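Please annotate this fold before class:
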Amino acid sequence: MAGAAGAIGMREAAKAAPDGYTLACYIVTLMIGPLVVKDYPIWNTLDPVCMVASDTSMIIVKEDSQFKQSRI
């Protein structure tokens, strides 16, 4: 899914006929996209098929930063 951080491909996948011939790969921008792109399909408009991978995200700051470690 290249182009516009996946927005073009996700929009096309969301509009495709539900016949099982169109697949889209979930990417982080699927959660961010609705906040910055008008008419971006949101995650609950699509049906999940399987999980291919998982990814951990983190924010890193300098050791002497005012921000301290937090675990969710």
